[in-house]
Amino acid sequence: MKKIITSLVALMLALIAGAQVKQKVTILCPEDMDTVVVYDLNPYKPGAMTTIIPVNGKAVYNADTKFNRVLAVGGSNYYMPFFIDGEDIEADLVNHTVKGSDLNKLLVECDNKFDVIDRAVKEKLTQLQEIATPENLKELQQQAMALFQKRNKQRLEVLQDYVNCLVPAVYLSEMASELSYDQLAPFMNEEASYFNHPYMDLVKQQFANLEKKRPGRMFVDLTMNDLDGNQHSLSEWCGKGNYVLVDFWASWCGPCRQEMPNVVEGYVKYHKKGYEVIGVSFDNKETAWKSAVKQLGMDWIQLSDLKGWKCAAAEPYGVQAIPSNILLDPEGRIIASDLRGADLQAKLAEIYGF
What's this model's pTM, rounded to 2 decimal places? Predict the structure, then answer.
């Protein structure tokens, strides 16, 4: 009896210390697959972990059991995700099915639905690429952006069917940076089983950042230097009776530069009606900042503290990625955020009536 008790105590101490068992993953492979890659889908540090050589169309991977972790196995054309939940699985990469826990069956079921959506988007993007010319490039870029927005909407509709399990944590962590406050809000239910999954920490942070740019909130004043080194505050323009776009950008940001002609177009069209734009740069090199302003034809007030990602605008406006912006009404309240492409033009047309 003493030996049994001692063994049990040793086992308990080992478990407490984090001793790990293995979760067996049997992988059924297509005939032409010569290597299986195992990926870690951790949103904070994703990447390939190891490769396995299949034998007679089968491979085996013994995963360390760290519960709540999500991995994926596959090749260049298809990856199957699965939760580390302690139950062995059989991942069929030929038929895109899984045998194992109910949770992993739900995850793969959801992933297959996402694949249908993603394949349709990929096909349409390929078609746009084939007909692209310098003359229609801007229009095609707007169509591509609309495709991604539609993709996100469809994915969120699919996720609504899985809110009673952990599946949303996998995909919301992947999609969070592309979603609006209103899109994320229905999933921020503290009672949901997925809400406290570690991968949701990233989603919660994004949601908190979006809250800072939520329509109805008053602008937060900032004071920085202009291109000539003179100090100015947002309150010199915001809340003074005109609509104002506060545009967060940087000279080193490729997407910012691509979007800037659209911002210029809106400014040229509506400035005589009182519309203002204030550029807040996340640059850290003065020469590059000034040069980009001139090159891009940004004929509006420009402000920067030249602190890069430590820019004073980052925290109060939840700016974690650029380009980003907020559109303020004449009283200084936020009425929209992160308007790009056709969405910005449509909002300005709605305001000014043309």
Answer: 0.80
